[in-house]
Amino acid sequence: DLIEGLGVAGWGVGGIEAEAAMLGQPMSMVLPGVVGFKLTGKLRNGVTATDLVLTVTQMLRKHGVVGKFVEFYGKGMGELSLADTATIANMSPEYGATMGFFPVDHVTLLYLKLTGTSDETVSMVESYLRANKMFVDYSEPEQDRAYSSYLLLDLAEVEPCISGPKRPHDRVALKDMKADWHPCLDNKVGFKGFAVPKQEQDKVAKFSFHGQPAELKHGSVVIAAITSCTNTSNPSVMLGAGLVAKKACELGLEVKRWIKTSLAPGSGVVTKYLHQSGLQKYLNQQGFHLVGYGCTTCIGNSGDLDESVANAISEND
How far apart are the C-alpha atoms of 317 and 314, rounded to whole Å? Predict the structure, then answer.
């Protein structure tokens, strides 16, 4: 959950467990293994928190962290914003851990100040955490840590990437996207395969979209959504999306009309800063209008495709 990026330990439980805790009953659990994930270095220009979280997810899935806690540490944490660490923490269901935890550091205190917490309260929080040896100070020498197992990532090695075609931990470097896609057509049906016969791989489905000629082929994009609680609560990637839309408008580029587009921000705050920055109008021009707040396309709540697009797919599949 997002709170773990703020130094708050917490994880989801079932309804019965939650009710029992509310009624004052004790909760028993097997002491989980704790994976220490050390971060060093700094992200390169052009690399986003989304690229980082997909890299971390792939590493943790490969390592195996189901039923475990993951604690991040190392001076690389100090180079990330609170929104970045919250992004990683919020992906714990995708990498399979019970919790992905970031301890409190100066970045956390800065976030408290930026969100209106009084200086007195921030000072008290820092003093309390330092007194209890729970505050991370990057100016001090790193101490040896004991974990069940260890992972290491140099942030400078993270590169722009995507995931798929079906699972979030199947990371693919952006530069390798095309090379990765074509074998997926040949591979047997699975997470990285569709088993499309050779003679069908270049097939083009022509159809009419509101009176205009259109065509689809294997790999065509038909849904483009700026959504998910992981992405749309992070100012850097949301403002980045707005700037990309602005540049596209300036260059005369536009999204194909038959692609279903949507924008579902993580909160009303996102809408506010997109409007105040003047970027929302460019997103609107590209078809990314506000559709609401909350879970949408990620869980199948995208709504139906245009009938002509849906028919073109079903008739040629």
Answer: 5
175 and 151 part of one domain: no
In 3-state terms, what secondary structure has residue 99?
Answer: strand
Summarize pLDDT for 57-104 with one digit per residue, the tens: 999 999 999 999 999 999 999 999 998 999 899 889 889 999 999 999
Distance of CA 288 to the CA centre of its chain: 19
pTM above 0.85, yes or no: yes
Residue ranges making up the domain that contains 178: 160-201
Residues 135 and 192 in one domain: no
Do 26 and 51 lie in a common domain?
A: yes
Q: Which SS3 state, helix, strand or coil, does residue 207 take?
A: strand
Does 182 share its domain with 239?
Answer: no
Rounded to whole angstroms, the Cα distance separating 37 from 16 reads: 32
Contact 209, 258 (CB under 8 A): yes
- Whether 182 and 143 map to the same domain: the answer is no
Phi first, then psi, for residue 162 (nearest 5°) are: -130, 180
